[in-house]
Amino acid sequence: VGHAIETHADNDYDLFITGDFNLPHVDWETLEVRSGGSSESNLSAQRLLNFMSTYLLSQMVNVPTRGNNILDLVLCNNNRLVLDVMAEPTELSDHNMVNVLLSFDPGVLEDAQATYLDESNFRSLDFNRADFSELNKVFNATDWKELRDSGTFEEFPAKFTKKLLSVCLANVPKKRPPSGKPKLYNSLRRRKTKLKIRLSAATCAGDAVRIKNLEDEIGLVSYEIKEAIIHHLEQGEQRAVERIKSNPKYFFSYAKSFSK
């Protein structure tokens, strides 16, 4: 699992891991292993806690799922996505059924993976240029109670978000395409930040092998960032040279930018 997470670490992601872990001796309030379990069970519990620390995961289930024990877990790296957790008896198992209320609809997850300038996403909107007086008028004219009563409690977060997005798309200007650092640079910079967080966790745990591996990865990413910046500058220089005759002002503006 750790390998799968690190393989996709260059992307922004929200991670959920669920299942029956059968570790009754973990105190999920203090994140400590209580006495009373077998040595094998205690070792598994400590490994899980170390794994959670390494990948910045939180355990979201705080109610018993079998007897007085919390055995069925939901691990997540973004607490804001979980609104509520309930565990109710079921005839299907001797464990309670765990119900997790999310702040998004996993049935339309593909829509949630929109790119930075996807026109059907909040991130495509420039709220710095928005007319909030007009937005407030539209929001005040919206029958939110009717929207709330139009479906179940579980469906409301997705319906609310969809309505909010439709209003914003109709009243907020779109962002202009970015002209700063290349997209690859930004992706590499995010990856480096995540690697540094993992290095800090590995240092606290005293894991020398993992520390060495992460330091090597950070060094490689730093080199890739440098190469991405050089490539970006070379592309800018090439465009400026190509426009010397057709657009001299562009060339002189480019040259002047290095004197700032």
Structure commentary:
There is one protein chain. The protein is flat. The chain starts with a helix and ends with a helix. The relative contact order is 0.08. The chain is mainly alpha-helical and 260 residues long. Strand 6 (82-88) and strand 7 form a beta hairpin. It is 48% helix and 11% strand. The strands form 3 sheets. The protein has a 3-stranded antiparallel sheet with strand order 1-5-4, with no helix packed on it. Strands 2-3 form a two-stranded antiparallel sheet.
Task: Write a short abstract of this structure.
This protein is mainly alpha-helical. It has 9 helices and 7 strands.
What is the succession of H and E elements? HEEEHEEEEHHHHHHH
Head-to-tail CA distance between termini:
48 Å
Q: Strand percentage, roughly?
A: 5-15%
Reported for the largest beta sheet, the result is: 3 strands, antiparallel
Alpha plus pi helix count = 9
Strand tally, please? 7
Strand order of the largest sheet: 1-5-4
List keywords for this structure.
260 residues; mainly alpha; 3-stranded antiparallel beta sheet; two-stranded antiparallel ribbon; 9 helices; 7 strands; 48% helix
